[in-house]
Amino acid sequence: MWTKPLSTLHLYEDEAARRAFLQQVMIGKSPAIQKVIELVCQVAISPWTPVLLFGESGTGKEVVAHAIHEASLTALHEFVPINCAAIPESLLETELFGVEAGAFTDAHVSREGYLMRANGGTFFLDEVSSMPLPLQPKLLRFLEEMTFRPVGGVDEHTVHLRVISATNEDLAVAVKQNAFRQDLLYRLNVFSIYLPALRERTEDIPLLIDHFLHLAQTDGAPTIQISDEAMELLMQYSWPGNIRELRHALERGQILCNGQVLRARDLPDEIRQLSVADSQRLNEFPQQLRLPPEGINLPAFIQEIERRLIAQALKECHGNQVRAAARLGLSRDQLRYRLSMY
């Protein structure tokens, strides 16, 4: 068996091995996920290039960040993640840059930060849109020079690492709202990868189901099967929580199912009820339509319906395009395309 360094060098130098590894990590055969795999394969051989991952919550951004790390030379060192939304603003600077003893009242000893830990490896900034504005210029300076000064320190420290950032928000909108620096966005967004929502790759759902059920299988126990009715519901559901929601739904179903077959009754209520409600609405809506005697301009009529529903979704979601797209069963890019068209 290879040690980690040998495995990493093998993936880095052998494109076929790298692609095979990524196919195992990112489950799916759809064109959408194959495009992601292709981009990851390309950027992995540039070990210091910053990468920005964007997409809805639950689409697997940290999984992709790990894959980039493992397929790069950075895997010889640590993968260090930090969630910008999970750490109080008052602590985030010291967590990033470290702190020198005596910098403030409670700083009794010096402590290195995440950036020093990630030296030579990968630093993963999750939910980077939550980075406080006062800290953004300091992060920008670090990204430009790869040097930093711990809080309360006087000496500059130099590191060499890859920065991967991730967001489920539209950073361009955040820039317009003065919530995110444009120059920082440019620095982070050297190489961007869009992670598709699960509803954009429904053909991958059966593969993901098999994968998650296999992961949860205990030694010697037979694999749990999915009934046809349950599979139909899982295929029809819009999955606003994406892959994370699918995995949790299967975990719940495995606990509730009797025997070795996961049935529709074992799925969460929102999947069973919303799937039925969607079908009912689709059946009822056409019955309310009547073709007028003089006829209609069908393309213009359909566009007007779509425009009104988009406007309503944006209003009800207070302008949040990610949430509005989820309500409409669209990806954010699909919604933005329609917004530009209308």
UniProtKB/TrEMBL annotation:
Pfam families: AAA_lid_14, HTH_8, Sigma54_activat. GO terms for molecular function: ATP binding; sequence-specific DNA binding. InterPro entries: AAA+_ATPase (IPR003593), AAA_lid_NorR (IPR058031), Homeodomain-like_sf (IPR009057), HTH_Fis (IPR002197), P-loop_NTPase (IPR027417), Sigma_54_int (IPR002078), Sigma_54_int_dom_ATP-bd_1 (IPR025662), Sigma_54_int_dom_ATP-bd_2 (IPR025943). One of its GO terms (biological process) is regulation of DNA-templated transcription. SUPFAM superfamilies: Homeodomain-like, P-loop containing nucleoside triphosphate hydrolases. Residues 26-255 form the Sigma-54 factor interaction domain. Gene3D superfamilies: 1.10.8.60, Homeodomain-like, P-loop containing nucleotide triphosphate hydrolases. PANTHER family: TRANSCRIPTIONAL REGULATORY PROTEIN. This is Sigma-54 factor interaction domain-containing protein. It comes from Tengunoibacter tsumagoiensis. The lineage of its organism: Bacteria, Bacillati, Chloroflexota, Ktedonobacteria, Ktedonobacterales.
